[in-house]
Design brief:
Elements lengths: L3 H28 L15 H35 L8 H12 L1 H20 L4 H12 L5 H18 L11
Helix pairs in contact: 1-2, 2-4, 2-5, 3-6, 4-5
């Protein structure tokens, strides 16, 4: 009735939406701390408001980390079990390459996020420790996470338009 790859495809879709959505949400929340067009923190933000922003970033980081793990696992199941062959579906191959190419970048960012989650839920650190982690996360890998986000949106375009799809040749 239900095949494993169809269930994995459903999980992939839901977790993709959660992962990319919370990543965008974290970008919007974090931008409240920065002066427009720079990587400098605004100096006039009240400490309590700044702390609340760090709390929101930590909470959304949990959803981001879990959903990213689900995306990786379910994408691997879909690639392994689906009837789509990578040779015949170039869009699927390109999507897989774009997704797994940025795994090291995402894991580095998840490490920084996990430190922020640890500070939020298991310590009583002040804003200075959060500021340090936030600035490290924003400047991580010279913008590679930003480039990765464009590639993830490109995967959606590839899945919709399916370029490089080989059609079977009709024999006469």
């Amino acid at each position: 009735m239900f095949s494993a790859w169809r269930v994995a495809l459903f999980v992939l879709g839901i977790s993709w939406i959660a992962w990319v959505g919370t990543s965008n949400m974290r970008t919007l929340i974090g931008s409240d701390l920065l002066e427009p067009g720079t990587m400098r923190l605004m100096e006039y933000i009240a400490p309590d408001a700044e702390r609340e922003i760090y709390r929101l970033l930590s909470m959304t980081a949990l959803v981001t980390m879990v959903s990213y793990g689900l995306v990786l696992i379910s994408a691997a199941v879909v690639l392994a079990r689906s009837p789509w062959k990578l040779k015949e579906n170039g869009w699927l191959m390109m999507s897989a390459i774009l997704l797994y190419l940025f795994v090291p970048v995402e894991l580095f960012c998840i490490l920084l996020d996990a430190r922020m989650v640890y500070l939020e839920f298991f310590t009583a650190e002040g804003n200075s420790a959060f500021r340090e982690l936030f600035l490290a996360r924003i400047g991580a890998l010279s913008g590679a996470p930003f480039v990765a986000m464009f590639c993830y949106y490109g995967i959606v375009a590839l899945a919709v338009f399916q370029p490089l799809k080989r059609t079977p040749v009709q024999k006469l």
